[in-house]
Specification:
By secondary structure, this protein is mainly α. The protein contains five helices and no strands. The longest helix has 28 residues, at 64-91.
Length: 121
């Protein structure tokens, strides 16, 4: 369902990152809470939801320098999200496929924000 929504909004990056954040929240609600998963959930929520928040800030940036800085943060948070998704997939094997799909979307964000950063002079 997330993928269909994303494909319909492929060029609306604010919406796409918001849908991604919602999917991260939905995934984290499914995770059994224990000493291993609780820290992973917290880190994943922070990283996965901050991608869109920073992109919204980038779109309201006061200068090109500010815009580029926010885009770099988006890229950094996308990469961090991939890390936490990897660990969550290892910690909760039954969520591995869902983590993989979200990891792929985070990878696409990493590539998108890398391209935006390079093209911002």
């Amino acid at each position: 369902m997330l993928i269909n929504k994303i494909q319909n909004n492929k060029y609306d990056l604010e919406e796409r990152t918001a849908l991604f954040a919602e999917a991260i929240i939905t995934l984290c609600k499914k995770v059994p809470k224990n000493v291993i998963t609780i820290p992973i959930i917290g880190q994943l929520i922070r990283a996965g939801t901050s991608i869109g928040a920073n992109y919204c800030e980038a779109n309201g940036a006061s200068s090109k320098k500010d815009f580029k800085n926010k885009i770099f943060i988006c890229k950094k948070e996308s990469k961090e999200t991939k890390y936490w998704l990897r660990l969550l997939a290892k910690a909760v094997e039954e969520l591995k496929e869902e983590c993989r799909k979200l990891w792929q979307e985070a990878q696409e964000f990493t590539l998108i924000f890398s391209k935006i950063a390079v093209n911002t002079i």
